[in-house]
Every structure is written in C-alpha cells, then in structure tokens.
Amino acid sequence: MAVRAVRKTYASGFVALKGIDLSINRGEIFALLGPNGAGKTTLINIVCGIVRASAGSVEADGHDIVRDYRAARSKIGLVPQELHTDAFESVWATVSFSRGLFGRAPDPAHCERVLRELTLWDRKDAKIMTLSGGMKRRVMIAKALAHEPTILFLDEPTAGVDVELRREMWQLVRRLRDNGVTIILTTHYIEEAEEMADRIGVINKGELIVVEDKALLMRKLGKKQLTLQLQQPLGAVPPELAGHPLELTDNGHALLFTFDAHSRETGIPTLLKRLSELRIDVKDLHSSESSLEDIFVSLVSGRQ
Ligand SMILES: Nc1ncnc2c1ncn2[C@@H]1O[C@H](COP(=O)(O)OP(=O)(O)OP(=O)(O)O)[C@@H](O)[C@H]1O
Ligand SMILES: [Mg+2]
C-alpha cells in the first residue's frame, strides 16, 4: 500500500494531515502511533474511502483508491475506532451481509472459519446488543474479514479491552499476518506496538515524524541507564564528576548514569574508577533500557 503526499484540510479549515508519504509492505504489521488528534483516524479513513483527501494519492494493492475505488476497497478491511453495529441483527447476519456488500458470493464456510477463529461461533445467533463490549469488537473484526481483504486496518483494536482479551487479539492479529494479511493498527498502548509491530510510524499534528523498523528504532533512539545505589547518600553530584551524564535520585541515595545503548564506549569503567578514587561506595547497581514508550514520549514532546 502506498500513500503519496496526502493532505487533508477539513471543511472547518483545520489541516489534519500535512503531506503524508508512507509505504506499507505486504504482510507486515505496521503500528501507527500518535497523540489524540494527531491524524491517525483521518489517514485511515482516507485510505478506506470514508474521508476524501484534499491532495495526494493512495494505492491499495495496486489500485488507486479514487479512480479504482471498488477494486481498492474490496482489498481493504476496516475495524473502525467507533464501534457501530446493527444492534438488532445477529452476529451471523452482520458478518455474512458485510461480505455481500463487497460483491462477494456467499461463502458460509469462510464466515464460519472467521467466527470460529474469533471464538464467536457459539454466539452466531445472538443479537449484537446482547454481547459484551469485547465480543462486539470481535464481531467488528469478523465483519471486516468477511470479504477476505488483504489489508486490514485496526483503529484502536484493544481500547477498553481487558488484558486477557488483548493478548488473544494480539495472537489473532499475528495469525492473520501469518496468513498473508497486511495489518495496520493504531494504538495508545505503546507496549502493544512494542509487542506486535514490525515497523512503527509516529504521527504528530498531521506530520509523520518517524517511520522505522521497530528494532532499529529502539536501538537508534534507545538509551540505557545504570542506577548506582550508594552506600552513603550524597547532597549533590560531586564537582569532580561534572563531566559525566549523572543525576542524583532517590533522595541522594542513587546516581543515575545515562548512556547510549549502541555506542561501544559506555563510559562505565571510567565512572566506576572515578567513584572509587572519590571513595564513593556503591552498594548495588542495575541497568535498564528505555522502552518504546520513553522513545515515543521524547519524540512527540520534542515537537510540541
Ligand atoms: N470531520 C471533521 N471536521 C473537522 N475536524 C476534524 C474532523 N474529523 C477530525 N477532525 C480533526 O482532525 C484532527 C485529527 O483527528 P483524528 O481523528 O484523525 O485524530 P486521531 O489521531 O485519530 O486521534 P485519536 O487518537 O484521538 O483517535 C483532530 O484535531 C480532529 O479534531
Ligand atoms: Mg483516532
């Protein structure tokens, strides 16, 4: 899927997207992260033909979404952020009807597979309004998969979903990907992106500020920290240590040393030597690595 120079100005005059270029690889899980109002849903809705771009173009599985709308749309499944289902319909009717909307011939075996995969099969005759929130969300996924799309958009798939169900959804998304479906998801749970995504895009105020392989992003922007628990508390970082990236924490009971996760010289041996020369005794030490969440926060807050 390719998004080229897409801009969106809403009728209110608000510029929600300021020129987005993005290529999604076939069969990858791509996580789109960004604060509230960044433009994630706008971008998804443009690709799905719900919102019209003000400029630029989008191709889905080789089809232009405007010139070749029907073909493009038939390749795409969307689980929208706002759940709206036909409350009085049964699960089965909703899912099989959705397939028909895309001009696909009925295929009860496919619909059954999808419902079983989402553990909804035994609720297939239930009216949607009688289901729990998590089940409704799964019905929306089933509905989006009914016409066998090759690209699936999940806009906040696990918002308001309990931990166990979230893990189940992650497994399901992986299985879909293993079956060749390209997945694009948005989430506010950064650990979800950390767990699932092959690549990460960060969007802020209508601009894509980073697109990167997840592992590479974490290696590039990640920092490591070494916490040195002190035998005796200090009132301040001694001036002799001024040249080291140190911070006093834990009411003077610990020194926090930040270093580059990927540099060859960490500076730790020199630091330990200096500490021992200054007779600062270290009781304990442990290191930690910054999470995707730390990286995300620093990326987004740097551009406010
Ligand atoms: N129909 C509309 N008319 C005017 N402005 C809109 C419209 N829809 C969205 N916006 C504005 O565009 C911006 C981007 O909204 P969008 O829904 O794409 O954000 P988002 O990244 O999905 O946020 P969230 O994380 O809260 O879902 C917001 O400032 C929003 O208020
Ligand atoms: Mg949104």
What does this structure look like?
The chain is of the alpha/beta class and about 300 residues long. The protein folds into 2 domains: about 1-220, P-loop containing nucleotide triphosphate hydrolases (Rossmann fold); about 225-290, Alpha-Beta Plaits (2-Layer Sandwich). It is about 35% helix and about 30% strand. It contains 10 helices and 14 strands. The chain has helices at about 40-45, 70-75, 90-100, 110-115, 135-145, 165-180, 190-195, 215-220, 270-275, 290-300; strands spanning about 1-10, 15-25, 30-35, 55-60, 65, 75-80, 150-155, 180-185, 200-205, 205-215, 225-230, 245-250, 255-260, 280-290. The strands form 3 sheets. The chain has a 6-stranded mixed β-sheet with strand order 6-7-8-3-9-10, with helices on both faces. The chain has a 4-stranded antiparallel β-sheet with strand order 2-1-4-5. A 4-stranded antiparallel β-sheet has the order 12-13-11-14. The protein is elongated, with a radius of gyration of 24 Å. The model has no long low-confidence stretch (mean pLDDT about 90). Adenosine-5'-triphosphate binds near residues 14, 16, 36, 37 and 39. Magnesium ion binds near residues 40, 41, 81 and 155.
